[in-house]
Inverse folding.
């Protein structure tokens, strides 16, 4: 089975712009979670989607949003980018209903905001 | 207070020794607990999950959970240099088990 894929792998944006990141889960996985990883804060949960519905949400401002499509692919959008949004954004998928912590991570998208 | 706490390390152990990694969590009603390993420049990889009090063994890895003390640990027996990585503790809470990660403990296994 193919693993979790994320596109693009690297991205450079300017402060104030917006960005959309994409994640394709492992075939058959219906739960997709997004995380932000920075050296200072570690891995922080953004949100989780299951069957096109957001089930959990982390403590991020409304500039961070996401969605999931009927084929379980997910997108994450960040509007009005700030320098502090520079981070590795990781997507993870899980096959288990009710056990999203048992998840498989993609390679991540490295976002740099200048 | 952080929801999931880990000592950042580095924890240095000689090859062949037992490495003990610890994690505490603040939400008493947490129900699921995980250990992930992250090599430098790579994504986290799930190595253990545990849901009930006690020990769970998988090869050289043993996860230990004590809900009363809000404590979860990971033991790595016969540590190898290839075990050198950052180990992330994660805890699931709430109806849909929202997952919170600790900041990780860096383990160095010295040959």
């Amino acid at each position: 089975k193919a693993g979790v894929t994320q596109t693009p792998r690297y991205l450079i944006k300017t402060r104030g712009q917006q960005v959309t990141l994409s994640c394709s889960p492992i075939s058959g996985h219906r739960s997709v979670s997004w995380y932000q990883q920075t050296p200072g804060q570690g891995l922080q949960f953004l949100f989780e989607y299951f069957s096109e519905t957001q089930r959990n949400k982390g403590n991020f401002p409304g500039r961070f949003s996401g969605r999931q499509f009927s084929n379980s692919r997910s997108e994450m959008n960040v509007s009005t980018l700030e320098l502090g949004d520079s981070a590795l954004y990781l997507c993870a998928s899980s096959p288990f209903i009710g056990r999203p912590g048992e998840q498989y991570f993609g390679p991540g998208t490295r976002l740099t905001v200048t | 207070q952080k929801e999931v706490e880990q000592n950042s390390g580095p924890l240095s152990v000689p090859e062949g020794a037992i490495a003990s990694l610890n994690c505490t969590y603040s939400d008493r009603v947490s129900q699921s607990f995980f250990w992930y390993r992250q090599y430098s420049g790579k994504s986290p990889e799930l190595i253990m999950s545990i849901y009930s009090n006690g020990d769970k063994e998988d090869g050289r890895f043993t996860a230990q959970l004590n809900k009363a003390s809000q404590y979860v640990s990971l033991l790595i027996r016969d540590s190898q240099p290839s075990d050198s990585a950052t180990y992330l503790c994660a805890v699931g809470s709430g109806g849909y088990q929202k997952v919170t990660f600790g900041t990780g403990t860096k383990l160095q296994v010295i040959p």
About this structure: Chain B touches chain A through 22 residues (CB under 8 Å).
